[in-house]
Amino acid sequence: MPGQPLQIIKTGDSETDNFLLNEENLKSILDKVPAETKVSVVAVVGAFRTGKSFLLNFFLRYLRANVSDEDTSDAWMISEGEELAEGNMNEGGWSMVEEAEIRREASFQWRGGEQRQTTGIWMWSEPFIRESKASNGEKVAVLLMDTQGMFDNETTMTLTAQIFGLSTLVSAFQIYNVDKRIQEDNLQHLALFSEYGRMALLPENEMEEAKNNLSEQMAHRTDAETLLTSANAADSQVSDASTVASTPAESTVSEEVASPALSRQSSRPTLSRAASRRAARLQQEQRKPFQRLLFLVRDWQNFDKEFHEGDGHEVFLEVHEEMQQYLAEVLRTRSLADLKSTREQIARCFDKLDCFLLPHPGFAVTKKNYDGKINKIEADFRAMVNKFVRFVFDEELEAKLINQRPITAPELKTYFEVYVKMFRSSDSAFPKAMTMLDATAEANNRNSYDLAINHYKTALENVAGKDKPFVKETELRQLHDRVSQEALDIFDERATMGADDVIEKSRNTLIDQIEEEKSRYFATNALRNPFKDLEFYLLPLGIALAAWFMSVVTDVSCSTDFCEAVEDTFVNIYFYVLFILIVLGWSHIMSGVKYLKAIAPELVDHIQQNAIKKNN
Question: In which band, very low, low, confident or very high, does the pLDDT at 594 lie, cut at 50, 70 and 90?
Answer without folding.
Answer: low
